């Protein structure tokens, strides 16, 4: 019990000394040991890494799970060390509703058949989204969390300890400075009655202060080296986060490629079924109520165009160029399109494009749905749909 009381009193004394030193430094009444410029640079880089890692982590969580309530629920499950329950994605839920609607409205009707096809596509999109979220969480979010909850906590702990060692060092310097000043004053103004005892006590006090300073300096240097090594490890953290970022982009690329493939398959299915219902037209309406937005998929927008007159085989580039020049554009069904990106023609059957220019486009029966016929003045050739934004 006595030992604990002594330790408690000693800790209280150290805490009080540090508090006094810190307060005097804030008011400019005490000197402060400054760290070297390289060390300060390491500290600044570590703080910046921590702050940006937190922001990237939080925003990635929002990207993967926009619902804040769901994020809070997942956070609580993780803190309780319990498995997060499986959650239905929005695409899977939409697929379920569409399938139920088709069952009730009539699965053999044109609308019901279309609902079933779209529901199947949405189900695939939801499954792809689920895989993407799972992969991104493991390969990207988990390493970021491990850094914040592991390495950064260790760095923060050692930095606080370094701060305490610095306060002890500066307090020791202040005590030695006072002891030296008192000893010097006693030497210049002697007391003939108590000269020896007083000078002896002051000299012993100065010696004790010097010894205390040496110990404090050693502990500070040792802690500064430990902290410096941890801060230099931030470079390895950057390398690890870079690798995780590449894996995140790879999983995101795979996810969007799957979505694109599923939607192309759906578009082909809807195109064939819609053509059977409304002969002579593509999917959608021939005249939209308003011009499509720039974010609208060019492939989808192109499918709304009326079919034009037929043209013979376009397989051979040389023959295709000749035949395209001979084919007149349809009397109806031509549209204006804005070019989104520069495109260099691969052969004479294609039309080179410049970004933001306006051209006239139309479709011909039997053509690849990913291509249209484009006209600019007297020039004519095939153009890729993905490079266009159809306007009217």
Structure description:
- By secondary structure, this protein is an alpha+beta fold.
- Helix content is 66%, strand content 6%.
- A hairpin with a 2-residue loop joins strand 3 (371-376) and strand 4 (379-384).
- Helix 4 (90-105) packs antiparallel against helix 5 (110-188) and helix 5 packs antiparallel against helix 6 (195-232).
- The longest helix is centred in the middle third of the chain and has 79 residues, at 110-188.
- The termini are far apart.
Biggest sheet strand order reads 4-3-2-1-5
Q: Specify the overall morphology.
A: elongated
Question: H/E series, N to C?
Answer: HHHHHHHHHEEEEE
User: What is the helical fraction, as a range of percent?
Assistant: 55-70%
Query: Which regions contain 5 or more consecutive residues with pLDDT less than 50?
Result: 278-322
Category from helices, strands and their pairing: alpha+beta
Number of strands: 5
The termini sit apart by: 90 Å
Rounded to the nearest angstrom, the radius of gyration is 38 Å
What portion of the residues fall into strands of 2 or more residues? 5-15%
* Largest sheet geometry: 5 strands, antiparallel
The overall pLDDT, averaged over residues, is: 79
Number of helices: 9
């Amino acid at each position: 019990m006595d030992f604990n009381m002594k330790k408690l009193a000693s800790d209280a004394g150290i805490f009080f000394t540090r508090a006094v030193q810190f307060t005097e430094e804030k008011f400019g009444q005490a000197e402060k040991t400054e760290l070297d410029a390289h060390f300060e640079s390491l500290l600044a880089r570590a703080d910046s890494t921590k702050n940006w890692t937190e922001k990237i982590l939080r925003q990635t969580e929002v990207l993967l799970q926009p619902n804040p309530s769901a994020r809070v629920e997942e956070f609580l499950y993780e803190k309780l060390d319990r498995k997060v329950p499986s959650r239905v994605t929005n695409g899977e839920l939409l697929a379920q509703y569409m399938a139920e609607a088709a069952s009730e409205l009539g699965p053999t009707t044109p609308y019901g058949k279309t609902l079933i096809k779209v529901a199947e596509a949405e189900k695939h999109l939801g499954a792809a989204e689920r895989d993407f979220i799972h992969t991104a969480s493991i390969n990207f979010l988990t390493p970021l969390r491990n850094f914040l909850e592991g390495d950064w906590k260790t760095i923060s702990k050692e930095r606080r300890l370094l701060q305490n060692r610095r306060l002890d060092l500066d307090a020791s310097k202040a005590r030695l400075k006072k002891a030296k000043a008192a000893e010097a004053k006693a030497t210049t103004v002697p007391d003939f009655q108590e000269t020896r005892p007083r000078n002896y006590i002051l000299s012993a006090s100065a010696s004790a202060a010097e010894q205390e300073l040496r110990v404090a300096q050693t502990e500070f240097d040792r802690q500064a080296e430990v902290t410096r090594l941890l801060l230099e490890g931030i470079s390895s953290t950057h390398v690890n986060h870079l690798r995780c970022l590449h894996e995140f982009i790879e999983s995101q690329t795979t996810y969007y490629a799957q979505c694109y493939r599923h939607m192309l398959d759906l578009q082909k299915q809807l195109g064939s079924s819609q053509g059977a219902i409304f002969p002579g037209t593509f999917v959608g309406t021939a005249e939209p109520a308003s011009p499509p937005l720039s974010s609208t998929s060019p492939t989808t927008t192109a499918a709304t165009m009326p079919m034009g007159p037929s043209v013979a085989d376009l397989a051979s580039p040389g023959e295709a160029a000749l035949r395209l020049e001979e084919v007149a554009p349809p009397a109806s069904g031509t549209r204006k399109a804005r070019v989104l990106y520069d495109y260099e023609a691969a052969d004479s059957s294609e039309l080179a494009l410049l970004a933001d220019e306006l051209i006239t486009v139309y479709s011909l029966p039997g053509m690849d749905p990913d291509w249209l016929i484009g006209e600019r003045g007297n020039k004519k050739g095939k153009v890729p749909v993905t490079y266009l934004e159809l306007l009217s």
